[in-house]
Amino acid sequence: MKKLIAITSLIAFVAAAFLIQQSASSQNSVWKAKPKRADAVRALVVTGGHDHDSEFYSVFDDDGINAVVDPHPAVFGGDIRKRADVLVLYDMMKTLDEKRRKNLQAFVESGKGVVVLHHAIGNNVDWPWWYEEVVGGRWLFEPVNGKVGSYKHDVDLTIKPAMQHPILKGITTFGIHDETYKDLWISPKVKVLLTTDDKTSDGPVAWISPYEKSRVVYIQLGHDRNANLNPNYQRLVRNAIQWAAGKLN
Q1: CA distance 129 to 125
Q2: Is the distance from CB of 163 to CB of 137 less than 8 angstroms?
Q3: How far is CA 159 from each of CA 152, 176, 233, rounded to the nearest angstrom?
Q4: What is the pLDDT of residues 77-129, one digit of tens each?
Q5: How far, in Å, CA of 41 to CA of 61, rounded?
Q6: What does the pLDDT read at residue 72?
Q7: Superfamily (CATH H level) for 9-244
Q8: How do strand 191-195 and strand 150-161 relate by DSSP bridges?
Q9: Domain boundaries, the chain
Q10: Rounded to 5 degrees, what angle do the CA atoms 29, 8, 47 make?
Q11: Mean pLDDT value across the chain
């Protein structure tokens, strides 16, 4: 896991404007966002607390997803239930103040979807409701029962489906160059979607949380451009967003 840094609202806004919103004209840019369908899922993408490549935003370049980036912690400063169908977390903040906790909890308890990506497993590690009930896992910054979270960069992984599920539509066994996590706390109640046999990993790399009021997915993959530009990873995240929004069954 890379060194934690603060990502300013300005940087996130510029990245989002360039890579998610439509470019000014095809003459001025070689990249242009795909037109969005009228029924596109409104995805609110939360960044902050951890650096990331600009290629991350390519994951949302899909006509069925209308993504808007709003950095942590400002995004949770008000009621977000009317802003989005699905919350996509790619931030990493160990704690959240009480006011913002209430806004986040209100969103989740309203039945809105949540997709937690990669290092966002390090969010809210002092909030048991969040990591036990909602996400079904957490990063161990401090030793628990003799274990502490570890990571390894630049690993060539073989990823295998662990079950049949709409999120895995079009996805079979695939390879990816990514980062692995080991010695996380993972709830025994999660439904594992994808696994790897790599020794630097706990095994599960994607799961459905045990939370019953909304659809919540955690995907451990997604460290840098090597993952973000991988077609299988892109399909996985897009499927997860559609499923979390209740549009993929």
Answers
A1: 10
A2: no
A3: 16, 7, 10
A4: 999 999 999 999 999 999 999 999 999 999 999 999 999 999 999 999 999 99
A5: 12
A6: 87
A7: Class I glutamine amidotransferase (GATase) domain (3.40.50.880)
A8: antiparallel
A9: 9-244
A10: 80
A11: 90
